[in-house]
Amino acid sequence: MRIAVLGAGYAGVTVARRLDASLPSDVELVVVDERPTHLVQHELHRLVRHPDLEDVIQVPLDDLFDRAEVRTARVESVDRENRRVHLSDGTLDYDYCAVCLGAETAFYDLPGLEDHAIPLKRVEDARAIRESFLETCRQGGTAVVGGAGLSGVQVAGELAALRDQEGARDVDVVLLEQFDAVAPSFPENFQRAVRDELDGRGVDVRTGTTVERATADAVETDGGDIEYGTLVWTGGIRGPEALEGERPPVRSDLRLDTRTFVVGDAGRIVDADGEAVPASASAALREARTVADNLRTLVEHEFEADPDDFAPRLKQYRFEVPGWIVSVGEGAVAQVGPTVLRGAAARAMKATVGAGHLSSVGALQQATELVESELGAPSVDDAALDEVEEALQISVDGDDLPDPADVVDGIEGEGLDDPVRLGTGAASSTEPVEIEIPVEDEDADDESPGDDGTGQADGEEE
Q1: Is residue 223 very low, low, confident or very high in pLDDT (cuts 50, 70, 90)?
Q2: Each residue of 310-338: pLDDT tens digit?
Q3: Out of 69, 181, 186, 345, which could bridge 341 as a Cys pair, Cβ 3.0 to 4.6 Å?
Q4: Where is the stretch described as Disordered (predicted)?
Q5: 113-235, what's its fold?
Q6: What is the pLDDT of residues 98-108, one digit of tens each?
Q7: Which pTM does this prediction carry?
Q8: Structure confidence at residue 343 (pLDDT)
Q9: Partners of 96 in the β-ladder
Q10: Average pLDDT over residues 35-59
Q11: C-alpha neighbours within 13 Å on the C-beta side of residue 166
């Protein structure tokens, strides 16, 4: 028997690692990805400003599995009827398959957009954005980011921070969004906090603006043309090429058919409550756990059950919102329940999410390096860093990422009498609560803690 896991992003690695540790020895497990490394996708925007993190946010696939075969190839199509995967270097037959190929950038057939805009899906994209923007900084001009979802917000924040780092005061960073708010799919108090971070960091946010076409030097919108030196597009997603660009609807047991599962952004998942599941890393990780359990159940049934037995009962995936976090340059906004956090607490949470994932796949050294990079400057106090380091030990077995509450609990900020505690006090109220925790800026005067030069006491962010 052979199980094929297609794709080695969050979903694919989680499915494969769980099966790697639990399948019978005579079941073959094959992991296929076009690259030999696992990418921590939600940290990809960091490479725009910190190219030295390339090796930190990528883990060799061969280091992640004990017995799974890793095959480096591009998945071209999946023939479900014949249970065969067509690859760039041949074919792969399977008994069960988990399609974990993620999503690609959607350009919506807008004239010139795909030709001129840079997406942000791969390491090469981050390099291209950085190279283009540094040239824009040298020449003067404007960087335009299309789409103000979380990816667009993070890219715009990095570009604004890189502009300040380069001293390019005459360069504008413009963030376009066709809806009336940034992060349009998220709660209003989260949107407001994100908008405040963007405004405070000098990003020109233009909501209610629709991109219509792009040329080599201008973006045409319904509100007029914007000349640019750098153009980045994060305005939407579509299915992978192996699924003909479609994101097929997937039921709550995460099966397309009796032998083929779809996990993560590659499909449009509907959970056990009939609710559409948003495309996100946290959802992909949780879906992957359900798929791994269901695959084990099916394998055990084939090996142990009487052929006349009924089909086994599979787990149904139910989406639960774990909270949201987004970086904006050196700042971050996080929401857990009704509580919106900014400043040191949000930065510590962001560092722990990325580093926690690395630790969960055994990349402890890379996790430590990511924490140091995320929390290095401006620095948070030692108590915050200690909380992060302790949280990294929660999930080395790969079962769970660190709980954000374990990171925030006990972090103290100036102006707060008590540590922030999620789930008690204000955080458990029905009204949204915003909490700002200043960052200790080593270069700031003692009289003005947390002033990062933008007039805000902010902190820092898949």
Answers
A1: very high
A2: 889 999 999 987 788 999 999 999 998 88
A3: 345
A4: 396-462
A5: FAD/NAD(P)-binding domain (3.50.50)
A6: 999 999 999 99
A7: 0.82
A8: 81
A9: 3
A10: 96
A11: 24
CATH 3.40.50.300 fits 2-103+239-304, yes or no: no
